[in-house]
Each structure stands twice: as structure tokens, then as C-alpha cells.
Amino acid sequence: MMSTDQIKSKEPVIEINGLKKSFGEQEVLKNISFTLINGENIAVLGKSGIGKSVLIQCIVGLIHPDGGSIKVFDKNVADLNRNELGELRQKIGFLFQSGALYDSMTVKQNLEFPLRRIKKDLNEKEIEEKVNAVLEQVGLADALNKMPSQLSGGMRKRISLARTIVVDPMIMLYDEPTTGLDPVTSDEISSLIIEVQKKYKTSSIIITHDIKCARNTANRIIMLSEGVVYKEGVLADFENSTDTLIQSFFMHN
Amino acid sequence: MKKLNPVIKVKGFATKHSIKLSEKTLAKKELAGNFLTDLADVLLFINKIIRETFSRDFEFREFFRQCFQIGYKSLPLISITGAIIGIVLTIQSRPVLVNFGAVTMLPGMVAISLIREMGPVITALLCAGKIGSGMGAELGSMKVTEQIDAMEVSSTNPMRFLVVTRVWAATFMIPLLILYADGLGIFGSWAGINIKGDVSFVLFFSQAFGHVHFMDLIPAVIKSFFFGAVIGVVGCYKGYNAGRGTESVGVAANSAVVLASLLVIIVDMIAVQITDMLI
User: Fold this and answer.
1) Domain edges within chain A
2) Model confidence over B26-77: pLDDT tens digits?
3) What is the pLDDT of residue A107?
4) Which of B138, B141, B153 sits opposite A94 (nearest CB)?
5) Best mutation site among A56, A58, A92, A98 for testing chain B: the one with the most B CBs within 10 Å?
6) Judging by beta carbons within 10 Å of its beta carbon (0-12, 13-18, 19+), is residue B86 exposed, middle or buried?
7) Residue extents of the structural domains in chain B
8) What ipTM, to 2 d.p.?
9) What is the third-level CATH fold of A12-252?
10) Tens of pLDDT along A136-161?
């Protein structure tokens, strides 16, 4: 992981202010505000169902917030039209909790799919080289012609990560990248997250409730509770905290 | 001022009967509201399909892939069913026509009934089962496993890529499947006649097509396009709007078949009425 000192630029890439989102009567996000600085990794912790995934889905415009503002690269997401949102999304990589690999396509086709649509100037050879390079990076070069149904949970996550980084995103949003994986594979995914940060100079938001993953990958941690930012700080702030909720969260992990 | 003691107090009251009535009214209101909301959703969905169809980047590659999936992969089912309908129709009709001494009318009667009604409706119902449920289940499972969201965030319009291509592929391929089923049905009828008789291939076809007019074929072909569109729209609508749980995939597939089959019958009834008025 890049140290906080290494993140020299203090330029914000995502600014969230007073974000609100309700589903019917249920108020999920009441008032969320924080900033993601260029080059840093933020881990967002919180109990299941607290709205962590909703938060990052609001960032890419998959869910429309009820109030507040989200600025990505200084552009207010709510003000963008479909084409502008599409352009913005090209700079954001989203790793879904389930992997979300296209079942009807092979691994190669899964990787080529975003590449052909986003990097339209690449020729066939360059596409092939890029696909092979990212597969090599996630350690699954031999899975090129496999179908997603032939892959294990960990392999699916890695291929999904490869599909996300193949288009060189500037921001990465990870939705519970280690959930449902064994400890060894979880560590491998955490290492990949750090590798991606270093190699592609990405800024990331990592939604997780895996403290080990947060510890390994995050420069800063944000804890959500009751729809608001409960605590924000570096790992030491959380580990030294005497707050019952934070302690119980860290003790259990 | 001295406080007055009321002599009669009237409070709001409700009898059991009035409570039941209001509950029923509320339930009906909710039902009507749901129906109208669903109808508005479907109309908006169709509007989106039309708008996306005429957008700059039509997904031709995916459209042709869907044509192959819908058309070519349905051929075995349609072939067997088409041929069997022809044979069965012939075998069932023959005794009646023999009684009237009109057995020579058999090829023409079977050809007309196949082209005008049996071929289109039975093929469309089979397609509603195979293609409609397939679309409902495929898109439903893509929704549940976040594949549609993944497409959206990778700057691909899922409506254009998944829905528009499927709807147009169904609209174009189902009429072709229907014509193919008609042809095989007529061929099956020739085979059916030859079980108990000996009619040459040329004689059979000249008798069959001697009774078929151009205006028998045109309305059937036109309604076939509507059958295709209905099956495509319903299958995609149910799948695309499936819930987030895994059970919603089954619900989407099932409701796609039921609704598409029902709409095929309704469209057929309307088409028959219009044809009857015009011809």
C-alpha cells in the first residue's frame, strides 16, 4: 500500500457532501460527507445493510441520491446527461460483489467487452496484448478461454478485477472484494488491490467489513453507522478507539 | 363563562360492514393503481426501445447473434411441431371430408388453416414458451447477478445492447419461423394424406395452393410480426425488471411465458377482426 506521505497530491477526486438516500420509508443514507484524495485508498466499514454498496452505486450513477451532492473529478454526477455520465464512467472501475462476469461470454470475451467499447482506437493485436497482460497480472493467464461457470469464486473475483483494470481506470470502487473467500484468497485479492493502486495510480473506495482487508489496503478508514459517517481516520485511530461500536467491530474481526 | 354540559355527543363510528367495504375499496384502488403503474411502465419501456433503436450505435453484431439464437436454435422444435400439426390436422379432417365426398378439398383446407391460423398461433405460442421464457430468465439472472449494472458502468447502454437487439431479433425471426412451420405443416399434410391414400407430391401441392390466395398470406405475415414483437417485448420487460432475489428469475421466466401467450391470443383475435372487416 502507498503510504500517506506518498500521496503527495491533495487534489480531491471524489467529493461527497450531505448524501441522502431512502428506499420507501427506510432512510439508508442520512448525511454522508467525505472526500477521496488522488492516489489514496479509503476503506468504508459498516454493518451489513447499512448502505455501503448504495454509496458507491450513487457515485457511478447506478442509484440516484435523494439529496446532497457527489462530485467526481469536479463534475456533479447528478448534473450529467447520459453521454457525459458514460464518459465519466470510463474513468471509474467498479468491482461488483458477485464479480458480475457475463455468463454467456468466455473470460477473453468478458475482458474484450469493455475494452472494445471504451478504447475504440485499439487494434486487434493491442486488444489481445492488453487482455493477456491483465490476465497475467491477476495470475490467470490460462483461463483465457474458460467460461465463468468453470471458475471458482476467487478466480471469478480476479477475472472481474482484470476486466475492471483492463481499461486503465483512474478510480476503483470495490464492493466487498473479499466477501465469501477463504483467508488465503482474500489476502491475494488484497495484494492485488495494492498492486493496482501502485501500478495504475488509482484512487479507491473499498467497501468491506473485513478488517484484515481494510488494514492491508486502506490509507484511511471511514465507518458508517445509522446512515452517517460515524468515524473517519487512519487505522491507528480506530485501533486505539474506546468506542464500543468500533471496538466490537475490530474485536470480531 | 360557565362550561356547558353536552347532552348529545356524536363521535365518528364505523360498522363492521362499512370497514369491510372500505378495505375492499382500498384493495381495488390499490389493484387498479398497480395495473395502471404496470401499464405505464410497459409503455415507457416500449418508448425506450423505439428511441434506442434509432440511436446512432445500433448493436448490429449482437442483433445478428440474437437472430441466430432465436431463429436457428428454434428450428428443431418448430420443425417437429410444424410437421406434426400438418399430419394431425390432415388425419383428423379426412373422415369428415370423406363423409361429404369432399376429400379433394383436404389439401386446400389444411393449407388455408395452417397459413391463416394454426401455423402462426401455434408457432407463436411455442416461441412464447421457448424464446419468451429464455429472455425472461436470461435477463432476470443478469439483473440478479449485477451483470446489467456491470454493463452500465462499463459505458454500455444495456437497454440498447440487451433489449433492443432481442426485441428486433424476435420481431424478424418469429415470422420466418412461422413461414417455415407453415411449409413443414403442408409437407406433413402430404405425408398424412399418403398414410391412407396415394397422392403425388405435385398434385397435392397444386390442390393445396390452388385454394390459397395472396390475401390469406399477407394478414398472417403481418400478425406474425406483431407476435414476434409482443414475445420480445414481454420477455425482455419481465427479465429486465426482475427483482433482486434469485426467485425473481423463475418469476420473470414464468410470467413472461404466461403474459406473452395471453397477448399472442389477444393480438390474434384483434388481427382476425381487422382482417374480417377489411377483406
Assistant:
1) 12-252
2) 777 777 777 888 889 899 999 999 998 988 788 899 999 999 999 999 999 9
3) 94
4) B153
5) A98
6) buried
7) 58-278
8) 0.87
9) Rossmann fold (3.40.50)
10) 988 888 888 999 999 988 889 889 99
